[in-house]
Amino acid sequence: LSGLEAFGLGKLSEMEVYEKAENQGKKEDAKEAAVHKISEEDLIFDKTYTCPVCDKVFKAKNVKAGKVKLISMDSDLRPRYQVMDSLKYDAVVCPNCGYAALNRFFNYMTSVQAKLIRENISVSFRGLPQDGEIYSYDEAIARHKLALVNTIVKRSKLSEKAYTCLKTAWLIRGKYETLPAETPDFVNVKKALQEEEMEFLKNAYEGFQEAFSKEMFPMCGMDENTCTYLVGELARRLGHYEEASRWISKVLIAR
Q: In CA terms, which of 5, 26, 51, 196 is 20 to 30 Å from 104?
């Protein structure tokens, strides 16, 4: 690159046009090492919410936007991220009245729904245990199950119930995938978790299937083709192969 001296950039004249593969590999290794130094605590923060049921202000843990990198996705659209499972932080729970919902649904509340929650959940709610720095899978699953109970009590849309079941199934999968080998009775514990996951997937499948004929798209942030594919994949996982074929064929012939 001789001639750059005229621009005062003579020190750049020895630059390589294409980076050598070995140098690129070293940079990737450096990036990977940097990622491993980041902990789950570094990627979350306390977000302030106002409860639409009791109007109390509270804080709940949330994932910092853009800080967690997606590395892959399961066939049923469950995302996998570097460093941590950000799905653990998707359920927001009011520690005062017990109202809980997935983040995307938390602020949507009618006066009738708020009354149902106060009468059926708040009167018996004993509060949340003191949270640590991060949520464990057990804590996250419990919070999602509380969100599911809330969807039933407030008579939510079928799609919200189904989506909450799906997210809970994904967390149960995450728990048994990371189950320590030294866990007492490991085989039976894992089997029980897999059975529980399938039960939640079954509820998600039934809910989305029924929502197709009763609700408008987009549904839970998904367009019609995405939701059609998801129902087909849930059917396959549950062993309903003819139904899975029928749903997937709709995606294949879609423009």
A: 196
